Amino acid sequence: MAVINENSPVTYRKVTIQSNFERRAFLFMRVSGMALLILAVGHMMIQHVLNSATNLTIQYVAQQWSSWGWRAYDLLLLYFAIPHGINGLRNVLEDYIHSAGAIKAINIILVIFTIVTLLWASYAIFMFDPSAILSN
């Protein structure tokens, strides 16, 4: 048990509480990590264990994506994986870059990259026409 000597000076330090963004990013990493564990393991089991790797053709994807459920599953996987990975990259970069201006610029670039990637990939999933593949 530690005993505090009344004659020794007590030092205080000010604790800064992180912004709401950092708290939300921390929570998102935990929630998306759990969701990705379920979604990614499910994806691997369905695509690579229950089905042979030789069956993974464009026709197989077209057959799956003719159902809205498979598209929703892949969109969920996409919407959790891309921001999760980018947020992890942001955390690593902030550990090594100490300039506030550079961190702000990198964060802006990462947000733009994430939004563009999610929009582009969502467009590809929504605009994919399974009937064009399956009719051949």
What can you see in these coordinates?
The protein has five helices and no strands. By secondary structure, it is mainly α. It has a single domain (20-130), classed as 3 helical TM bundles of succinate and fumarate reductases. Helix 1 (20-49) crosses helix 3 and helix 3 (68-96) runs antiparallel to helix 4 (100-127). It is elongated and about 85 Å long. It starts with 19 loop residues before the first helix and ends with a helix.
The average pLDDT is 88
CATH level-two architecture: Up-down Bundle
Q: What helical percentage do the residues reach?
A: over 70%
The top level CATH class name: Mainly Alpha
Major beta-sheet overview:
none
Ranges with pLDDT <50 over ≥5 residues?
none
Strand content: under 5%
Task: Provide the gyration radius in Å.
Answer: 23 Å
CATH fold description = 3 helical TM bundles of succinate and fumarate reductases
- Gross morphology: elongated
Q: Give the helix tally.
A: 5
Structural class: mainly alpha
Which H/E pattern describes the elements? Answer: HHHHH
Q: State the end-to-end CA separation.
A: 78 Å
Could you say how many structural domains there are in total?
1
Q: State the total count of DSSP E strands.
A: 0
